[in-house]
Amino acid sequence: MDFVECVAFVGNAWAAVIARPAADARVAFGRRWSDQCPAFLKCISQLVTVYSPPTSKWQLGKPDVATTDAMLAALLTRAIDDICAGIASEAPALGVAIEQQPVICEYVFDLCTRVLQTRPDLLACMPPPSVGRVCELSVHALSVPNRLALRPTAYFLTELIRLSATPAKPSSSSSASELLQALWARHGATWLRTTLAAIGGTHPRSLLPNLSELLFAMVRNHPESVRLWMNEALAQPGFPSVHADDTAKRHFVQHILATRSMVRVKAVVSDFSIKCRNLQGTNYAS
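Predicted structure:
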């Protein structure tokens, strides 16, 4: 089976599984998701991995690069759009739906991370509304205090942020680099604010290592914009916690921006989180 046949087979099988009947659509999507969708997302991930490199003995019947990217991007777009529509049907609010089915984010963002690591040009081939849905989903997933939802989302955003500050490789198009820079400019402040809110108390402390790594990626790759957005967010009274006064916020910003060590960042984040949760002098602060 060559590349075109593989893509057609996966696409047709996906359409048959994900197509929702008019009656009882919410139950049908949830059942099909848990039973079938993860396997299909893994298949798409494998197609991206096998057929994205310039040369490979496994690339049987592969067309030219532009056609390959267009076909993979179309398959990825269909999956993202259908899943986002299915998630939206599960609950009145997207965040509630993610909290009910956090494994959705695990597989979606595992696939998106693989795309960024293997062939970021695929994002530039996707329609802007579909890319926007991925970013919207990432914001909601980041705001859900669940490890299954947060960890893969944080990994995806860390890779996106890294690439947005990295010059395009000769093998990649400038459009992908420009898109990632635009995504950071448009959504970066929201990602940062959501991360700060999570550190301040909306998420359990067991998730602080993942949040610290994401914050470290933001600071290391975009220090100036992070400085501006962090100062703006923390200038708001009571954010991210009524227990953090202006002095604590100022010290937090200074130490985070001056730190170049992940170990140190995690320590600074932990100390600030303890103050935000009013846990100083307790066993939780040790």
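Summary: The chain has a mean pLDDT of 85.
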